Amino acid sequence: MENPLVEAVRKAGLTRAALSLRAGLSYAAVAHALRGYPKKPPQAMLKVLESLGWDAEELERRYVEWRSAYRDH
Q: Which superkingdom (predicted)?
């Protein structure tokens, strides 16, 4: 099962650098979220993805579910 943020970023055609600039986040913060380190994805990242047509609430829900299944075990 893939991190839903990784899937969304890939399908949006964004690089980590481009996403960090658009979201106003450090490259490290974006990389950490894409690796599943934070318990919830950064809201700024979700806002960028939402502006590209993704449902932010659904992405957050799927991320938390994925992280619970993948990262915590």
A: Bacteria
